Amino acid sequence: MKTTYKGSCHCGKIRFEVDADLDHVRVCDCTICRRRGALIHRVEENCLRLMTPIEDLSLYQWHTKTARDYFCPICGILPFRRPRTAPDKWGVNVRCREGVNLSTIPIKYVHGGHLD
Ligand SMILES: [Zn+2]
User: Fold this and answer.
1) ∠ at Cα 51 (46, 54), nearest 5°?
2) Distance from residue 53's CA to the centre of ligand 1 (Å)
């Protein structure tokens, strides 16, 4: 069952709401994920509502330029991204959501390293 979560970056410039059935989080070993340490959960396009215009975020792209990593230009936190393997979805950083007890959510290890 989907729950609506509020989320934000650290400084509060970037705010969003997401509808998600948070039954797992993804931990990936690709070059950027292993540095960032975010816990990602993917949702369909229409499950993420931005309270801050997308133009207000900084965009980082590299290599094939398919993945789109959006982060706050002030505090540097990444609240969500477009994954390379599913660019029509949002990968939302679960650490940016309010009201989530991370210790109760199963971790799914993803080996994205071979996609670098
Ligand atoms: Zn911020």
Assistant:
1) 75
2) 13
Distance CA 97, CA 90 (A): 14
- What's the gap in Å between 98 CA and the centre of ligand 1? 15
Q: Which fold has domain 3-115?
A: 2.170.150
Note the pTM of the prediction, 2 decimals: 0.92
How many whole angstroms separate alpha carbon 51 and alpha carbon 36? 24
> How many angstroms is it from 59 CA to the middle of ligand 1?
14
pLDDT (tens, 9 = 90+) of the chain, 116 residues, equals 899 999 999 999 999 999 999 999 999 888 888 899 999 999 999 999 999 999 999 999 998 999 999 999 999 999 999 999 899 999 999 999 999 999 999 999 998 777 54
Q: 14 alpha carbon to ligand 1 midpoint, in Å?
A: 6
